[in-house]
Amino acid sequence: MSALIDNAGYIYGAYAITFAVVGSFAWRAIRHGHRLGEEIDDADKYWT
Amino acid sequence: MTTTSDTLTDAPAPARRRGTGTPATRALGIATIVAMGWLVAFGLGFSPADRDQEEAVRILYVHVPTVWLAYLAFVVAALCSGLYLFTKKHSLGFDRVAGASAEIGVVFMALTLVSGMLWGRITWGVFWQWDARLTTTAFLFVTYVGYLAVRNLGGSHRQRARRSAVIGLLAVVEIPLVHFSVEMWRSLHQEASVANPTGGTKMDGLMLFSLFVGVVAFTLLYVWLLLHRTRGMAMQDLIEDRGLDSALADRRSEGAMS
Amino acid sequence: MTRWRIARLIARKDLRIEWRSRVLINQVLPFAGVTMVMFAFALDATSVLERVAPGLIWLATLFSLLILVQRSFGVEADDGALDALRVAGIDPIGIFWGKALALAVQLAVLEIVLLVAAILLYGAVVPLGGVVLLVTTLVTATGGLACVGTLYGGLTAGFSGRETLLPLLVLPVVAPVLIGATRAVEAALGTGGVALSEGWPWIGLLAVFAVAFGVGGALAFGPLIDESN
User: What CA–CA distances, in Å, run from C13 to C19, C78, C149, C176, C199?
Assistant: First the structure.
């Protein structure tokens, strides 16, 4: 039990950092896409 | 999706609002989030503590997926570099996939190093060990940071693509050399082999399942990120080309007037 | 013009420029010497210094390599000479080997001076039996370093803001040379009780490295310095 309490910080920290970094990377990618997407016709986008 | 209408002719102007998302990526994104939820539930909750590592094994359910996906990302980058250089069309699409994949790989590799250090702090008592695998992983990370820096050197898109592809392929040569020399180096010190995070541990059913969930979740994430970043880069290249075209047009009209 | 002739001409040109400007002698060697002194300040104990002398020699070599490479391509970039050579249709493989050869000569001089500095400042001793290993190490390590330096120097030459990229690219790549050359010199000098025979496997590594970058670098050099579309 004490092992969990002592190490809880590291374990939760690892998950938290991972999701925080991944989340912010994903967020910025989407935002970048939206910003640029407004300047280009949909016809020029190969995925639409 | 709204269309604006041109007041003079009443013909709808082209809709130009969309970003990098499509129905497919939206579905993929939802699947990713669900999988990540399962990962947290199983990784932090349902799976048992390991007999030797105790609770520290939970970190491995994010650490191992990130390292595998980082390797996958770098392999994809190297493959696309080769495809760009050695196919007749020299399609810039390959260059963009390579760049996006390397970006994602660097992020995942950084996460691997961080989570690995936290795991190491619990199990070994130290944040870092100079063993062959860790050292090579750190080198891989720095090498691809350098690759990303080369991509930003400027010049035309073709120059960027050619330079990056060459550097990307050189990385495939460098990494084995570094790995081999570090292995030779560490074997001199005759250390007791450092605990292999997954190898040494006897994983029971639920633990293996949690790991599996982690790998699935991060693979979905990788594909999702790759699609969005590649499309974002395609738009960036398009805008830069337009900027160049309009600058050239301005220059020409200046010349015509004088 | 054969590649070898091109290489010789370019190597001679670079070395002549170096001889006339004496940048190596006046600036790079003093820099390397200062570095060796700085190491002594940082590491304090004489026993430590003697034990790590081989490593310090190669560290000082690597830092000086960065400066030498900047210099090697700085003379080209100033007048757009490299582009002129490319446009004239000169085989880039020849250019690569020529510049690498000139760089290797300068590196060799540097390394010998650093070895002498280590003997004088750190109390390193060269046993007679270790001389062959020592010389072989110098040759193979220098070959590899010169090829890597020329390759990445060509990539980062020219445009402002690109030179700062050189250390970040070069140092990770030459890590195997640092590891191998240090271990081999330790064996040659017998530091830390390392046996002479343990040095030769490292020579193998250094040789593979030199060949890999001699060939790979030559092939990659053309596309990398080509600023045309």
Answer: 10, 15, 18, 30, 36
Q: Does C205 touch chain B (CB under 8 A)?
A: yes
Q: Take residue C92 and report the two structure tokens written for it.
A: 């880039």
Give the pLDDT of residue B195. Answer: 46
Q: Which residues contact C48 (CB under 8 A, 6 or more apart)?
A: none
Query: What are chain A's partners, defined as 3 or more CB pairs within 8 angstroms?
Result: B
Tell me what the mean pLDDT of segment A16-41 comes to. 94
Q: Enter the pTM of the model.
A: 0.89
For residues C10 and A23, give the distance between their C-alpha atoms in angstroms, rounded to a whole number: 52
Measured from the Cβ of residue B14, the count of other Cβ atoms closer than 10 Å reads 11
**Amino acid (1-letter code) at residue B46:** F
Residue type, A26: A
Structural domain spans, chain B? 59-190+221-238
Query: What is the residue extent of each domain of chain A?
Result: 2-44
d(CA B116, CA B112): 6
Whether A13 and chain B come into contact, CB under 8 Å, resolves to yes
Tokens of B227: 């699609």
Average pLDDT of the segment spanning C39-66: 92
Strand spans (E) along B136-253? none
User: What is the dihedral sign for C-alpha C186, C191, C196, C198?
Assistant: negative
pLDDT in tens, C98-119: 999 999 999 999 999 999 999 9
Query: Angle at Cα C160 formed by Cα C159 and Cα C166, nearest 5°?
Result: 85
For B149-174, write each residue's pLDDT tens digit.
999 988 889 999 999 999 999 998 88
* Cβ B228 vs Cβ B95: under 8 Å: no
Residue to mutate among A1, A2, A4, A10, with most B CBs inside 10 A, is: A10
Dihedral Cα C87, C89, C92, C94, nearest 10 deg: -130
